[in-house]
Amino acid sequence: xxxxxxxxxxxxxxxxxxxxxxxxxxxxxxxxxxxxxxxxxxxxxxxxxxxxxxxxxxxxxxxxxxxxxxxxxxxxxxxxxxxxxxxxxxxxxxxxxxxxxxxxxxxxxxxxxxxxxxxxxxxxxxxxxxxxxxxxxxxxxxxxxxxxxxxxxxxxxxxxxxxxxxxxxxxxxxxxxxxxxxxxxxxxxxxxxxxxxxx
Length: 199
Hints:
Layout (H helix, E strand, L loop, with lengths): L7 E11 L2 E7 L12 E4 L2 E8 L3 E6 L1 H6 L10 E6 L18 E11 L2 E7 L13 E4 L2 E9 L2 E6 L1 H6 L10 E6 L1 H12 L4
Antiparallel strand pairs: 1-2, 1-6, 2-5, 3-4, 3-6, 4-5, 7-8, 7-12, 8-11, 9-10, 9-12, 10-11
């Protein structure tokens, strides 16, 4: 489990095809000292398992399902990725509950610079229509964000300068794809409503 608070943004150093999946190697941040093989780390919203590492690199395997749900299907050397280590029981909860289960990608429709921050407008996927609410949580690229506006075919979030500087959103442009995970609580509510008997 994660909170959507990005710790580091690092470049992808190598990408290799591996059967139906891919293996990627990323730069290891200096402060990621106590990591181990088999540990889960969130990369741009996707919960991935460390396969191996050394003093400067970390390696991950991207399964076919991960490639189908994320923009990692087109990941290449030099791409910037957001990192967050998994939550410990004693940690302070600063964002919201993030599973690291990316539902799909969505397209950036607009990036507007404000006096203090940036406004991002995204295409609203049809199947997430009931999972996005005004002032509710949404995870974009692994970042805990608040929905500020909802329109028939789009939704918007405001990115503060701290998030802009600490994440890969500063590298994104209109037309780019981003990973999205709706609020887990909204998914449970939707499931229960769908299973309620109709009177």
